[in-house]
Amino acid sequence: MALVMTTFFYVLVSFSSVLTLPIEELANHAAPFALIIKQNSQIPVSIISFISLIAILNGALVQIVMGSRVLYGMAEKGIAPSIFKNIHTKTRTPVVATLFFSILLFAFAVWFPIVMLAKITSFVLLTIFALVNLSLCVIKLKHYHDKERFFVVPFVVPAIGLFLCLGFLLLQFQ
Fold this sequence. Notes:
single chain, mainly alpha, 74% helix
């Protein structure tokens, strides 16, 4: 559902952008959304820049939390170094895994251009979503008769999610 809604809003914003300014002008500008706001609104571009900065920071925090929890879970299962399963006694958070991902994200932010970071982020998230949907498909197939124990959703839902994620992954390479 998240992919459907995100795709809908992405298409809506893209469609609105193309109707607002010529495609050539949008393609040749470093910040097309800021250009649209500047030419068609009373909102200062600095506010849009500030909102963009907040969104980028929020995305970084989400990646740190997600990555550290995944690494913690892998360490709990024995498929990542056990140091990552250490949790803080008071906050109950995986401190080492969080520090590791914070440093990793900082290094990526310093050494890679923002476009590459966006592509890496999209690739990682779509891969994770694809793997989650694949896992749900496997669970549905293995435990077809055990409907009380596992989630109740038609098999087609995670299957569609899997194929959408794989399709979006393939589109990234074009």
